[in-house]
Specification:
CATH class: Alpha Beta
Strand content: 25-35%
CATH topology: Nucleoside Triphosphate Pyrophosphohydrolase
CATH superfamily: Nucleoside Triphosphate Pyrophosphohydrolase
Radius of gyration: 14 Å
Number of domains: 1
Number of strands: 7
Number of helices: 5
Largest sheet: 7 strands, mixed
Distance between the termini: 19 Å
Order of helices and strands: EEEEHEEHEHHH
Mean pLDDT: 96
Helix content: 25-40%
Length: 149
C-alpha cells in the first residue's frame, strides 16, 4: 500500500504550494503540490509529516492537526493535515532540497495551477469547505471533505 502525508499549510487566508522539480523520473514533475511525501518503513504518519515538512519547507509548525484519510481506488492512501502558521514560522520558511519554488495561494488560485489529479480533484470537489477552512478559519469536519477521521 502506498501511503502519503500532505499538509494544507495556511497563512493569512492562503495555502502553501510547492512547485515540484522538473525531473521526468519523478511523479508529477513541474506540478504544484502540497508539502508532504511518503511514509518510510517504521514511521508513524505524524512523524512522517514532520520529517517531510522539515525537509521541504525548513519549518515544523507548532500547530498541526490531522484532517483525515483519503483512500483511492488504486489503494493509495493520503493522510491530510492542516497547519496554521504564525508570522514567526512564515519568516523561517525556506525551500529545501526538493522543488523549484513555493508560494501561498488562495483556494481559487490553486485551481488555476497544474496540480496532480488527486489534489486538483480534492480541491475542486471541496472548494467551498476548503475556502471556509483556509480563508475563514472554519473547523475541519472530515466527513464533509470526504475524509475518514
Amino acid at each position: 500500500m502506498d501511503i502519503g502525508v500532505k499538509a494544507f499549510i495556511v497563512f493569512e487566508g492562503k495555502v502553501l504550494l510547492i512547485l515540484r522539480d522538473n525531473i521526468p523520473t519523478i511523479a508529477y514533475p513541474n506540478y504544484w503540490n502540497l508539502p508532504g511525501g511518503g511514509v518510510e518503513d517504521g514511521e508513524d504518519f505524524d512523524t512522517a509529516l514532520r520529517r517531510e515538512l522539515g525537509e521541504e519547507i525548513s519549518v515544523i509548525p507548532a500547530n498541526i492537526v490531522r484532517m483525515g484519510t483519503e483512500t483511492f481506488d488504486d489503494k493509495r492512501v493520503v493522510i491530510r493535515y492542516l497547519s496554521r502558521l504564525d508570522t514567526e514560522e512564515v519568516a523561517r520558511l525556506k525551500l529545501g532540497d526538493e522543488g523549484q519554488e513555493m508560494k501561498f495561494c488562495t483556494v481559487d488560485e490553486t485551481l488555476q495551477l497544474p496540480l496532480p489529479p488527486y489534489l486538483g480533484n480534492f480541491i475542486s470537489k471541496n472548494k467551498e469547505s476548503l475556502r471556509g477552512i483556509v480563508e475563514n478559519d472554519a473547523d475541519v469536519i472530515p466527513e464533509k471533505l470526504g475524509l475518514v477521521p
